[in-house]
Amino acid sequence: MYEKNGEKYFIVDGHVHIWDGRASNQKNVHGKQFIDCFYDYHKNLSPEEVVWDYDTYTYYGSERFERDLFVDGYVDHAIFQATLLSDFYHTGFGQTDEALALVAKNPGKLTYNHAYDPRHEEAGLEQLRKDADRMNLQGVKLYTAEWHGDSRGYKLDEPWSRRYLEECIKLGIKNIHVHKGPTIRPLDRDAFDVSDVDKVATDYLDLRFVVEHVGLPRLEDFCWIATQESNVYGGLAVALPFIHTRPRYFAQIIGELLYWIGEDKILFGSDYALWTPKWLIEKFVDFQIPEDMQSEYAPITVEQKQKILGLNAAALYDIDVPADLQLAEPAGQEGVEVAAGAREPESVPS
Amino acid sequence: MTAVVVCTEQDVLTALSTVTDPELDESITDLGFVRSVTLDDDGVTVHLRLPTAFCSPNFAYLMASDSLDALRLIEDIGEVRVLLDDHHDSDKINAGLAADAGYVGTFGSEAEDSLHELRRMFRSKAHAAAMERCVEAHLKTTDLGVNEIYRLTLSDLASGKAKAALLRRRIGIGLSICPASRVFVDDDGKRIPPESVPMRLRFAKSVRISMEGNAHFCRGLLATRYADSESVGATPRITNLRTRSPR
Questions:
Q1: Where is the MIP18 family-like domain (chain B) (predicted)?
Q2: Across the A/B interface, how many CB contacts are shorter than 8 Å?
Q3: Is the ipTM of this complex over 0.95?
């Protein structure tokens, strides 16, 4: 819980990792390049006083994770998003067993989302059933642009992918997080495209599709889709840290998101350990649309911040929120009125 | 005897400045993607660099091959070599460029088809963003209402950087730059019904914000990645190894 100026915020960090990017775990040069790329993100967008040294960053371990999130970071509940990258790391980048041990150690405070790859076809489906049972899955994290053998990625609306989504419905996995943003080794245009989300969101109304990184670098495409579909959400990971280095640009992003997709569909995520939640939460609570931009974008209210920082994700994951931290109106509900962008009578831009 | 290489450093930089990052719609020289330029008696060698090793290979290839094409337009440039550094596909792309293999030839079975469609999509986005900038600037300086934007013609726009950029983008997607042409048109140059214009303008604004944001991100990452490097800021390192004086 975070409190500022008498206002209380229930915090759900919707995007965290426990990874091992050390040289000992790297399979090839891409493993090194990948963690270096993450470290550049971290160095470039974090305030100087919270920048870690490289060795700490490559592997920080469970204790540091708990301290940064729950002790220093105000986080009430965090959701692991798996990033396996089996082609780059011996035991995977995200550490599944370590994450599951942390979930067991912190009852009620952590949720683990695993990953699947529909290109593994029938064998992968069987694995998904086992994983869903063993890991108590409520969500999955998908990298549609991940390379596998000769394939440069897959689309959510391909036949095998549909079978996996249908299996998710059977298994009670409701939250489908999709990495659409900074990509790993994509090649052709398809890997960037968010239009596959549009198709499956229409077809599978029992599922919720959380587009991580709000589609950056395709914010506008994501916004357009999210206005059309009541079950499409946006995760703020990677967009939020601009609040420090480029606050005016962040004002534009959040202003566009509130306009197009609305306050019930935006989810906070630090992407820990890319960034630590503490400073992101503090800065977001203190944030306001600059005065000279308020003719373009309405000021952000405390209630909107409460929804974005935790209440929306709590609704998606059935997380108990203490009575004094709830809102009168429920947050993150699918039935709520769509955002302004979707209300205008207009055809889809070509 | 081979022809004496006579082009200047400035010729090279000017040619490279015409190459843009398709996703950001900014010049690779402004973005700091040109790491070094070396002139010698045989020709010119250019090294490019990108903000991360994971920049998508299709864009990396586009910028590198566009650089090669732009440099080859310079008269008497001699042999042109373009090399991409520090990328996960550097070897593949550099070999493909050296062999003039084209995109599909460079990536082989990994590439589905050529990059025309990708390029066209980003040119359309660049056009939408440039159009929005011009219209917003125009709305600020006149009392034109949003519902009258559909009337605007190119001749109504004040000349300057924004208009020049819009005209370039229009040429890029094959639209007329006749002064009597309407400003607010779709990607095919067709006029947009007046009642649809405000919504389309709003969407074009999101396109612009997205592109500008990506440029912030890329500049920041490039600066972080090459913080200790030999070149200062975005300026390429220029080395002249010629033994014969030009011109």
A1: 9-82
A2: 109
A3: no
